[in-house]
Amino acid sequence: MKSTIPDTGVPITPPAGNGGDREENRQEASLHGEILLRLRDHVVEGNIPDGGRVPERQLCEMFGISRTPLREALKVLAAEGLIELLPNRGARVRQLSQRDLEELFDVMAGLESLAGRLACEAITDEEITAVEQLHYEMYGHYLHRDMHGYFQANQRIHESIVAAARNETLKTAYANFAGRIRRVRYSANFARKRQRWAEAMREHEAILDALRRRAGSELSDILFQHLRNKRKAAIEHLTEPHEDGPSAP
Amino acid sequence: MKSTIPDTGVPITPPAGNGGDREENRQEASLHGEILLRLRDHVVEGNIPDGGRVPERQLCEMFGISRTPLREALKVLAAEGLIELLPNRGARVRQLSQRDLEELFDVMAGLESLAGRLACEAITDEEITAVEQLHYEMYGHYLHRDMHGYFQANQRIHESIVAAARNETLKTAYANFAGRIRRVRYSANFARKRQRWAEAMREHEAILDALRRRAGSELSDILFQHLRNKRKAAIEHLTEPHEDGPSAP
DNA sequence: GAACGCTATTTCGCATTCATTTTTTGTCCT
DNA sequence: AGGACAAAAAATGAATGCGAAATAGCGTTC
Strand C: which positions are within 7 A of a protein CB? Predict the structure, then answer.
């Protein structure tokens, strides 16, 4: 165990947050592509402490490759905003300040807002039915106080809306930003407050309603507010660590 | 035959800029960063034909560097969606289908829509005044049929709104997507139809009005529609090449 | 005893080198 | 003469080597 890492304040930020799209279809058979996927998962899943140093050499022997393809992968991850590269000082997993999180949530809110608007233009009755199905399922989890199930159904609903937008570029950007936030989710699980939970359910009712009526502009507003409230709950949770933990019914 | 080391005597600004300040851009002092910027501009400005091959070797001698930093830059550009990397077959500038363009415009619409909403929360009176200034300037260009001036003022207005959103993440993503579209702009200059031009002016009036009243939700709607109309005009222009070319007043 | 400065080791950045894969070209066969 | 196969040439993907910067370790000085 090495001594504590000298925190120099970490100034230099990655080149671009980018809403890039790397949906390149599975060309990832090449080594650097393979590494990119594995390394991204490794980071997103939180296997590396926040702001922790990640020496190239260590990752190389970890993946059993040379430095060249690894460095290429690192550059890409830096461009995605997951890590930051300090000149001559190696890579660190990017530590998100509260402000960063707020910004990310707002951008996610904007993307979902857009997704809702677009979805209203193109969604089929069958897809709406599917969302309704998920909604009721989620409601069931809510009644049973099953947070995990609720969380999953919730996520699938939002993904369904994004999918219904029929916009691959949006979908990719959405996935990218979601990845950045997910890292935080892993390290600090968002415990929902009871009150917020009920509120979220009401918002979801409104979402479904607007979607049924295909009221794009309205749905756009609701989704934005929904994510804004989510952001508020998340940030509050981070500032005052735990509010209530009981996940039991 | 010795390989002369291309010591171009590039300043390489030290990793200054420390402090809590997180400027997203231009930390690129390292070679690969420098190359990334130059190569991105090179591609965005359309110096390479659409779908054209981009041999590493050629670019290397063009920039006077070895392949390693260049390849790193290529990976990043691929992640950004500007080029695509074919396994063992080199890099090609990504050819955007009409569908891709539509998607990009819609995402841009979503981001600007978000920017407008956020701007209404944080914009100062001074900033609004600045936007008004640009608006009148743009109106002047409109009256004088100065398309270039109009275009620039227009762009600055949109950038001002994005800046007023106080969200660096959004700003970065916006710049990224704008870059992808700009490539198309260069190769096929969007000639505005007269009618669309007048329409755009009216929309901008509405934008300014909503911004003055800080009506976030409303501005969000207007901006989205504005970009949607822009998209329509752009796509139409691409399908039926030239409608009117005269840039002269 | 603590702060400063010097040296040694580690790590990073880029160039170069090696190994496959693709592309081109030249020849041979139909 | 045209096409197919094969070998050469070029280009890509990955590895290694070398110089430079940074971190760490240690000694000296106030």
Answer: 11-17, 21-23
* B75 and A CB contact within 8 Å: yes
Domain that holds residue A147: 98-239
Tens-place pLDDT, residues A50-89: 888 888 999 999 999 999 999 999 999 999 999 999 999 9
Structure tokens at A235: 């940030």
Give the residues of chain B that fall short of pLDDT 50.
1-27, 243-249
Q: What is the pLDDT of residues A153-186, one digit of tens each?
A: 999 999 999 999 999 999 999 999 999 998 877 6
| Nearest-angstrom CA–CA distance, B22 and B24 | 6
Q: What is the domain count for chain B?
A: 2
Residues A61 and A122 in one domain: no
Residues B175 and B120 occupy one common structural domain: yes
Residues A66 and A85 in one domain: yes
How far B26 CA sits from the closest chain A CA (Å)?
Answer: 7
> Do B135 and B59 belong to one domain?
no
Does residue A87 belong to the interface with chain B, where contact is any CB pair within 8 Å?
yes
The answer to whether position A52 is within a domain reads: yes
Helices (H), chain A: 31-44, 56-63, 67-80, 98-122, 125-143, 147-164, 168-187, 194-212, 216-239
Show residues of chain A in contact with B122, CB under 8 Å. Answer: none
Position B95, amino acid: Q
Whether B115 maps to a domain, the answer reads: yes
Across the interface, do B75 and A80 touch by the CB < 8 Å criterion? no
